[in-house]
Prior knowledge:
- The chain is an alpha/beta fold.
- The chain has helices at residues 18-26, 34-43, 92-104, 123-128, 150-162, 178-191, 215-225, 284-305; strands at 2-3, 50-57, 64-70, 80-85, 114-118, 166-174, 195-196, 205-209, 239-240, 243-244, 250-253, 269-275.
- A hairpin with a 6-residue loop joins β2 (50-57) and β3.
- α3 crosses α8 (284-305) and α7 (215-225) crosses α8 (284-305).
- The longest helix has 22 residues, at 284-305.
- The model has no long low-confidence stretch (mean pLDDT 96).
Amino acid sequence: MNQELTYPIGTPGIPWTQPEKSQWLAQQTIKRSYQNEVVVHIDSLRAQFNVEQYGKLNYKSGPYALYAITSKKFDLNKPTVLITGGVHGYETSGVQGALRFAMRHGVDYLADFNLIIAPCISPWGYETINRWNPVAIDPNRSFVPQSMSPEAAQIMAYVSNLGLAIHAHIDLHETTDTDNSEFRPALGARDGQEQEIWQIPDGFYTVGDTQNPQDAFQRAVVKSVEQVTHIALPDNEGKLIGSPMTQHGVINYALKDLGLCAGFSNARYTTTTEVYPDSETATPEECILAQVAAVIGALDYLRQQG
């Protein structure tokens, strides 16, 4: 439903200008360490993978080096799979799930795939537990030409420069209670527009592409995750976050039209995972394992397709 939400910055109905954005930024603080919680794990993978710095974010609390973990040698006869996490830095299991997959299971798939893993696209967002970057831009609405988000622009440039066709793209996300309590009210204030508030789904679900849904692929991801954690059920209208369910645990978005990460790679198979870390019946570790299971389910499906 549409709802006029209150937010402590700005005037309702009037979009933010630079003073409001600066006020918002001044309220953000570092809450955890990208170096200690992410980079150290990336460094531990150098024996098995190629670890490459593909970019840098020159923010005041940085600079933040941006890393990709890849197969040591790309084979043009193998399909290439892109795994992204931390597009929204506050979505912890997306980052840690990408890393956990790489650390515990990645080598098991090198014989069949070229792997490209970008575990934390938004490290400032990770450290401040934020959806936006420091200039109040949502990276996951910014995967568009001439992107204003350096987080989005740099990973897009890196993947493009590799010159590889991306066969599948798995983008790891969370849906949290703070989506309704903080981030959608902030969005409404920033844009001066009413925002819809939805019931937060309790459980895992995936987002496919409206133009290329790949139903069997999504089903394989959900089936794999179902062994680890519960799958979100529809609300009273048969929807998840305002969108009709197309099958158990699956909704579709127009990925490219919305500028979402999973849409930029032009992959044949795409999925955006969503876990619910605030569930009373799920732990942070379970959410990480759900992300790992999603990646494994996707890769096992692709492996079976040959």
